[in-house]
Amino acid sequence: xxxxxxxxxxxxxxxxxxAGPTHEPIDPVRYIANRSSGRQGFAIAEALAALGxxxxxxxxxxxxPAPRNVRRIDVESARExxxxxxxxxxxxxxxxxxxxxxxxxxxxxxxxLKKDGASLPPLTLAENxxxxxxxSMHDRRPRLVVGFAAETDNVVDHASAKLARKGCDWIVANDxxxxxxxxxxxxxxxxxxxxxxxxxxxxxxxxxxxxADRIAKECA
Length: 220
Ligand code: CTP
Ligand code: CA
Prior knowledge:
It contains five helices and 14 strands. It is of the alpha/beta class. The relative contact order is 0.18. Cytidine-5'-triphosphate binds at residues 18, 78, 96, 98, 100, 102, 128-132, 147-150, 162.
């Protein structure tokens, strides 16, 4: 059962939520990005705050308005996001919803790359830090660390493997085989050490409320 209307079971708890894409600079005017809208992460930050949590929302570049009663920190790149998460510690709860770019350009060009008529600019990639995996092993690890996994196939298998690999407590496995990225509804499975819960297709706001209720049960 969800907590009664107006109940604040997470009062006194600190939460950090990441949301949105990251932008990885190529040169001063170009970047690598992805299609994350940030809506699911923003909704989760709002839902946790509605249950009384003190929420820091670390947001990649999105145009969404900040939810009420949430401390919003805007970042661009994965490395800035990692630093902002670190700065938000200690926290009791972490929900890493951001679609962090897996790769950045190894060396950002200091000036705009120009067509020289001959060769193409070589873009050498470097792997970004895994913020979720690092947080799961952190000496100030939040008591509950939740990750997201957007998958197009074998959704629960991939998510279960990620749960083990990253060392977090729960993974919300998001089935993105349909038109989900940027859309209003999400089909998710909650994967924990105890098993897998299949949730019905729900608006992102409702996924957020259910997840916040589950977090309150675990942490209150
Ligand atoms: N994540 C992160 N830092 C990264 C990459 C991912 O914190 N550099 C987090 C995401 O916020 C999410 C979870 O890890 O909570 C899973 O992200 P996902 O992209 O599904 O996993 P990857 O390990 O990057 O695997 P892949 O993209 O290859 O499926
Ligand atoms: Ca990834």
